[in-house]
Structure formats: C-alpha cells, structure tokens
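Hi, here's the filled form for the chain we discussed.

Project: internal
Contact: R.S.
Residues: 137
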Amino acid sequence: MERTFAIIKPNAFADGNSGKILGRIYEEGFKVVGLKKLYMSIVEAEGFYHVHQEKPFFGELTDFMASGPCIVMVLEAEGAIKKWRDLMGATNPADAAPGTLRKEFGQSLGENATHGSDAPDTAAFEIGYFFSGLELL
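And the returned structure, exactly as it came back:
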C-alpha cells in the first residue's frame, strides 16, 4: 500500500464541494488515514509551497491557499500517488478529462479544487508537514 497527500482547496471548500470530493475518494477505493480541516496562514502556505518560491505564480498561489479553509488528507491505496493524480485530472481544469475532480470542481488553473503529491519523496514531505505519525490511523 502507498500513501499520498491531498488537499481539497479553499475554492472547493467554499463552494460546498468537500463532501462530493470525499465521496469520490471513497468510491475510488482510497482509505483516508488522516484528515483535518484547517485555515493555512500565509507563512504555512509559503512553507508548504517553498519549492515554487522562485516562480512567478508563488504569491498568487500562497495568497489563495491562505484565503479560506481547506481539508488536508493522507490517502492510502495501491499506487495511491498515481491513482489520486489520475482522479484529480490535469492541473488546468480546461485540459482535464471529463469525470475528473478538477474538470468537475476546478474553476481555473490557480483555483483547481485539489492538490496531490507528485512523487513518493514529495508525499513524505507533504504528509509530515501537516500530520504527526500519531494522527495517521
């Protein structure tokens, strides 16, 4: 079994789509081993997205992620990283395949409803950023 990190972003939370997204997560066979609702500060968002700090969209991204509550999760499944990324769809909702979360719930490239780790080392960092081992059941 593999674990990955996932976020239901502030726009999807504000639009009332968290339950629908969680439903899809369970329907697709993921086990949710960690889940928290939180409101990231700018400093927390900057720390989480530090790998993008030199990119032109960094400020817009961190401002957005600190704009409202979100849900952070640890998901477990066989091939969880790829499975979650496939369920999310392309980063830009306009390019996402029908039936993917970003196609259904994303509004734009910046407000694309969900986040997911892209590799095992990224997942390990992201999980550890928000969860202690005692919180993962």
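Let me know if anything looks off before we file it.
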